[in-house]
Amino acid sequence: MRILFVFLGGLALSAGFGPNSRGDIYRGGYGYNDMTLNYLGMDRNAMNYDQNLDQAMLLDKNVMNRVDTSRNILTRDRLNIDQMGMGRDLKISIMNDKDILRKQKFILDIMRNVYTTLIMDDVRDVAPIEGEMNYNNYDRVIPFFRMYGMKMFLPRGRIFAVSDRVQLRQAVLLFNLFYYAKDFNIFQRNVLWARNNVNEDMFIYSLTAAIFQRRDMIGIKLPSHYEVMPHKFHTALTITNAVNTRMGNLQDKVLIVKNNYTSDITLMNDEAKLAYFTEDIGLNLYHYYLFLQYPYWLGGEEFGLYKQMRGEGYLLLIQQILARYNMERLSHGMGPIKDISLNIPLKNGYNSFLRHYNGLGYSVRKNYYDVYTTGDYYLISRVKDYERRIRDAIDKGYVIGKDGSKIDLYGKNGIDLLGNIIQSNKDSVNDRFYGGLVRLMRKLIGGGYVKNVDHNNVLPSVMEYYETALRDPATYQVYKRVLKLLYQYKNTLRPYTTEDLLVKGVRIMDIRTTKLVTYCDQFDVDVSTIVDHNIRTQTKDTNVDNVVGDKLVFARHTRLNHKPFAINLDVTSDRAQKVVVRLFIGPKYDQFGKKIQLKDNRDNFMELDKFVFDLPAGRVTIKRDSRDFNYVVRDRTTYVDLYKNIVLNKDLNKLLDLNIVESHCGFPDRLLLPRGWVGGMPLQIFAIITRATNFGKGPTILTKCGRNTQLFHVDDFKLGFPFDRYIDETEFYTTNMLFKDILIYHEGMDTNIGMNDYNGMRDITDTMGNLNPGLDVATIQNIGGGRMMQDMMGDRMMRL
């Protein structure tokens, strides 16, 4: 699954990841940029957007200050995307849509303060529009009207969970109502009805999925989900402090409270050391949008997700998340993710301290949790059945279709077929037989499997929500179990030979990087929607209160970031040719300082970048800036800034830029590098160059949420190449690839949440880094007996 990335740098702060149980308050916008402090006014009438848009343009220009230069989009970013074939269709769609600004304003309005009632003269009696002439496929919409007539939809104020089959069915019917609307006006009318009459969480879920799929919504920029539903990204303590701050301060327009991670509240087990990473809002937002772009309940010829290798992409996504997570664990001297079994109590419990909007909390899993305490032995046996059937299919070499036919699992698209049955999506050849393995495991292990009163009253765990699942360390254990199925399959494939890997005449002479430095910065998230309990009303005034309320309340996050860096490849080639360059980062040593064999280490590499390059004959240096990487996105533009920069300014170029560098499904740029150590954490970068074959002619791979934003086919290798197969080291190494040792430095000793030195290896490298700040490449060997050797740049060597 290919996702578009671009970097947003920041200033290094001396603050660490510190606990904050006091709910400290900052008033008057201390430390916040001017753009967020500026207010704006808009009419709330959702039925007359052309008139309202014209009114908005007449507002005092003083509300349109453009001062936050850290968010200026570089022209080179748009040029780089256009050169790769992405962005051209997007640009055409945005520039040719005469209603794009009206649509953008409508979506921003309708998704603001979703938990309050939208009261307008024109929408009091709005009902969903019926009639075959109003829909592209009315047969798919009829079931919605049946359920609507029976008043069976989940009421507002109740907990919505996609893991509940009845609630999911309702969400899919609501999606159909939105998606199949023949034009935007019908779509808009249906959305207005649902805004006030359907469960809030279900409304946002179905609406977002529909926007991602509707062709007339290409280019629409959604407000960040953590601004729409802040309670799913912030602990109850943070939300309570925000509410109390707003209620107790009647003077300041902008209020800021500190965000509290779970590790600030309690240390349930050793996994709490990583709370700053697993509970990072950017990481969880990435996970949410990806699974909403590829919802497992959507598929078939109509949507064509199978053409984008969704099954293969699903497995790659899991592998990449685990690779990144494992590197963060190594930063703390923690070993690999532990295996999980339904027959053995799960050692690590988890309490998210999250709270739903209606006040109910999420279910809690205690330490040494036993899934058999659920009492549902039948479901447990079914999960084991599904896993066994998938393993059997891998061993037998075929899967069973719905008609009982045998389908070859080792054909051209075998890995995609396997991914589909593991995810149990709509493109699975037999979702009934192979079941929903991952979903059921998360339900059982999350601790949320309790006896619910009915389908309108459920109490899920955080593992059952895509926007909260990565907070729980057990999610990574479930994903690791899934990857064991993947590697069982891939280990049966023929390893790549030298002939497969070699590009004759191409040699990577060296890989050079600038100093790789991480640090802790601060980021403010607008949580006003969760603390604003005022009813939304229509008014003729273009007053700020109609859009963002009379106060803005922010939660200040202390989070991991890195300084911009560059990777330079010195390459020689005997002729000019178009090539594909892949860059990876991964560990070299385990938590004990022992070198990991490459055949055992291949699943620990994370792909940083993949790009096409016109390689000239002779010697050349390929320069790649981290801000140009194709798999990351910048920090999200705030809701207020979206309104100002796009709606008020009518800036279509800004809308295009934001769609490119802040694509919904991009991995957060600032999390590219693991935290590292003060003295330098040893990792390695791997680069490989292959020929660009059939460039732009093969199947496309989705790079971001939204249609027509795809990365063209660049070569014939599978996702994750060359680490996607068992490695025969006698055949693997070629001149067109190279491993290079690197060090990741961290500025600041963040010792207050467990970021201490964990082993002798860390102690010595930190000491060496302090003695020799210029050290930027290391090889660590021979740990034991009080001896360690570290090779440094050139021929220098230090012995301790």
Automatic annotation (TrEMBL):
PANTHER family with a match to the protein in the record: FAT-BODY PROTEIN 1-RELATED (PTHR11511:SF5), LARVAL STORAGE PROTEIN/PHENOLOXIDASE (PTHR11511)
Originating organism: Hermetia illucens
Coiled-coil region: none
UniProt entry tagged with the keyword Signal: yes
Hemocyanin C-terminal domain location: 495-746
Official protein name in the record: Hexamerin
Limits of the Hemocyanin N-terminal domain: 101-217
Keyword Signal carried by entry: yes
Domain of life (superkingdom): Eukaryota
Taxonomy of the source species: Eukaryota, Metazoa, Ecdysozoa, Arthropoda, Hexapoda
Alphabetized GO MF terms: nutrient reservoir activity
InterPro entries: Di-copper_centre_dom_sf, Hemocyanin/hexamerin, Hemocyanin/hexamerin_mid_dom, Hemocyanin_C, Hemocyanin_C_sf, Hemocyanin_N, Hemocyanin_N_sf, Ig_E-set
